[in-house]
Amino acid sequence: MSECRVHESILQSMKKVVCHYRDIIYVNDDKYEIADPITLYGDEVYKLNRSDGFKVSCSGVSKECYNIVGDGTPDALFPILSGMNDLQHPPAKRRYTNDVFLEIEPFIFHKAKINGFGPIRETFEGRIEERMAFMSIILPEKLKRNRKNALNYLKKNADVLTTPFDIHTTILDAMGLKQYASDYVARNSLMKRGLSLLEPISVLRTCADADILPYWCACMNSDWKDVPNNDTKFEEAGAALLSYVNRAIYDLRHLCAERELKLIRWVLINDKKDIETDKKIINYQAVIITKPGHGVFEGMMEYDIEKKLFEVKNDKDVSRISAYVTS
């Protein structure tokens, strides 16, 4: 009897590995059927009972979990440079009046990733790549001499959840200015939002501790389950996301055409309990393709069981993941 398992090298580099195996059952030489999926976790072994062929799809979360906290350059750089998100800064933006603008001087150069709106962004792999950006740190030799454990802690922290807020605190720590790091603590957390990578960070740290919205939390990806396209919530979730997009551009209707639903690519569901109210919270994620312009939108919504309504809780929970095209 044939056996299948996830390779040990994968298990060492990934956590929360989930695989769905489906036997390929041949009726005759020209016809075959795909059996119902059997779900296994981690190092569990799959045994082929009815055939010698199968289909398998697996997912997991990298143990090297540097997780971004939002969409676009501001959410990438503000936490690193200031230890705060964009909403915690003064409203020095052009849409506000009577603000004083900074003098334009070169300060830091950041290379955006190539083809950020490419087809891969619409896949699961692209979703993970966006949320878990590559981060490399080289410690100065003087710092390594003065702080014998710094490099060791840095290496160990490659396997725990870290964010741009931590990079800011780490930079201050490396400069001997850690006393100026932010003391901000996320709601219901017992640890600071920004921690130094040169000191131990708990492996039990969660996205809530790090102030990462569920939509952006890569560590939660294995907690989401597929919603079948014959489920009524599949269509409802897609329609709700489309409705939000159209409401968001309502005031710009003279510039932006009203979107129509072209396709619902996928819908996911996740349910959990609120630790404060002990109330069940159901979240949905969806990717929709709209027309005109083939706009692809991804978003997360909370489902109110009593009101039977989908609600986007935060503007940052919705992203356009396709390029803008002009005709």
TrEMBL record:
It comes from the Eukaryota. InterPro entries: DUF229. One of its GO terms (cellular component) is extracellular space. Pfam families: DUF229. PANTHER family: FI08016P-RELATED. This is (African queen) hypothetical protein. It comes from Danaus chrysippus.
